[in-house]
Amino acid sequence: MKLSVGILAGGRSSRMGSNKALLTIEHRRFLDKIAEEMSAFDQVLVSAAHKEDYPECGFPVVEDVHRDIGPIEGIYQVIKHASNEYVFVCAVDMPNISRALVLYLAEFICSDYDCYVLTDEDRIHPLCAIYSKKALPALEKLIQEKNYRLRDIFRLVPTKYIRLETSCFSKKTVKNVNTRIEYQKIVLPVTFCVSGWKDSGKTGLIIKLINEFIKAGYTVAVIKHDGHAYSMDHKGTDTYRYAEAGARMSAIFSDEGYAVNYAGTKTLTDMLALAQGEGDIIIVEGEKSCSLPKVEVRRRETSLEPACSADTLICIATDAWEDTRAECPVHDLNDIRSIFKSICDYFGLERT
Question: Do 102 and 144 touch, CB atoms closer than 8 A?
């Protein structure tokens, strides 16, 4: 069955304070992420208050005719302009919506219903639903009556309610992001590297960045990559003896803190998995060749030659900033606030 998809991107975003369609997650705008996820379907339409709001989105944009009446207008316009009988409609503030969920909803399509709407124990999701073109007269009637309540659509047309809890999908899939606090929860934790040549000042910069993130209300975890042989304990200590005897993990703790040693070679992926949940911000020292985003440190006395791939750079921190030319932002190594700002802007983080 051919299916059209309509992404509603015309909301006011009043609680967010900025256009939600342009917020980023996984280094992509919400709109781009959802559109890419839905691109395998026969048609993708974007609903906007004004066509010029999204001149380069890569998909046809349908414009509101009735202004400021809420999402009912967007639903009406995408169904009207769709080339297929059935249209899946979702909101642009649902960045985790998946193609698999749409396919699941489409399995219920039959001749008995004109709307197929997802529900859970808390609410009905009219902006996560499949509509038939047969619903257009009901939508027109509601708009003419100036009744913009989305639930009333289902009172006027045969509707199939599909329970989320009986599926394999979680509430995260259909979670709306309406406020800055909700946005922070979905983008955290963020992970980046502070990389550069040996003795370029990576550790000192990380210490200063830790202070900036803590002042802004974030928790921080740090992973250091050591290119040389490393042992947490010295020969003769109890934890060393445990590891030597074959323990996969040995640990020691006191009132002041604890340390853990894992047997065997660990990759960056292993260490990132261990760090999950330990901080809002995960900073990796080193790993200049990995694909993670990076702050690259360059100093005259070590080397001003690039150490990292340019397409992974958040910014460059250097004591030769006036002589450094790059596509990414370049900051003086001692201008911690500007470096911190570049990191926050890259990930869409709030800062103080």
Answer: no
